[in-house]
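Our consortium's second objective concerns turning raw sequence data into structural hypotheses that experimental partners can test. To show how far this objective has progressed, the report includes one record in full. It was chosen at random from the queue rather than selected for favorable results. The single chain below, 376 residues long, was entered without modification.
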Amino acid sequence: MWHKPSYSFKDIFRAMKLAFSAKKIWVGMLGFFVATTFYSVFTYLALIVSGTYFNEIWRIWHFIPLPVGESFTVWGSILLIFGIIGAIIILLYTQLAIAKITFEQLKGNEFYEVGEALSYTFKKGSPIIFSPFTILLIIALFLIGGLILGIIARIPVFGKIILVIFAPVSFFASLFIIYMFFGFIVTLVFTPAILASQDADTFDVLFESFSTLNEQIHRAIFYEFILSIVAGVGTSIFLWAVGRAVWIMEKVFGSSIALGEKFYQIEKVALYYFPQSPLFARIEGWLSGLNVVSIIYNIPEMVHVSKELYITGVFFAVFLYLLLFMVLSYAYSMISVGHLLSYLAIAKHKDNIEYLKDTEVKISTYEANSEKSEES
């Protein structure tokens, strides 16, 4: 069934419903698993290169190191940054796959498969890397130009004259760098949506991103504000439901006629493998309000249990991690869907194009005449 959008902020509220899909949540979980693995490997290497022992890293963070306030060497910092950037790129590719599934769904193709979305992502996803890289390259060239001017300014007398002459140029170049930075942010936000809705290359992505920045930035900011509220409410509801489901499991399996105290020992073994970080303190109030603190709270020391309970606890830890990835995936799916709906509305207001209608995919008169001549 084709879903007719309103091309306004009202569409953003549909993100909560459209994101609640087994296919999209599964793609999100797959993306988060790959991104987390990539990040964890390079963060482990960064900490080891910086002088932290593997056993110490494992004792504090286990599978997902979250270093806050840790000191890194130069090579450690490079490895950490590489791990973070790589994880972000993987998540952007994941967002493209989710957006593509949503786009096909909105066009009426309810049976668009995950495999097709992933295949499309790998074939068409290169602008996710090249578009922001192109902007960063331009910014870097301008900064290098400024450094060269600064070096020239060190020349006695003549250098100061050159600096004064080029001061207005330097000022406007600095303004241009700020403009390019905002373009970089818009590109990161909307590239997956642009690629999901049209057969675009790097140039098309940059053109659409900067035209959005120039003509529809007010809508983009407003839609992002609405999406943050929708995603926050949707994530809270879903996380609360997951927490209540685990609570029911605790009451059933922890009852005297079932496993009893042994289940809580299994749960403590599982929670030992969750990372600890000062970052969690910032959201502790939110988690407490949803009654889910107990299911993600790290146990600092391993409890002494039998080998059987320990192995069961390890598998239960894997299960809890899957639940965590599922919640994160639903939240990310709402963001991915919301950005797609935002871009479709922006494209309608900006270019009067409805990408959900096949009839709206236009070609120029020159291209049309060329095709006719080739057929004849």
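The partners drew two points from this record. Confidence is low (pLDDT under 50) at residues 359-376. Residues 131 and 206 are 6 Å apart (CA to CA). Both points have been shared with the crystallography group to help prioritize constructs.
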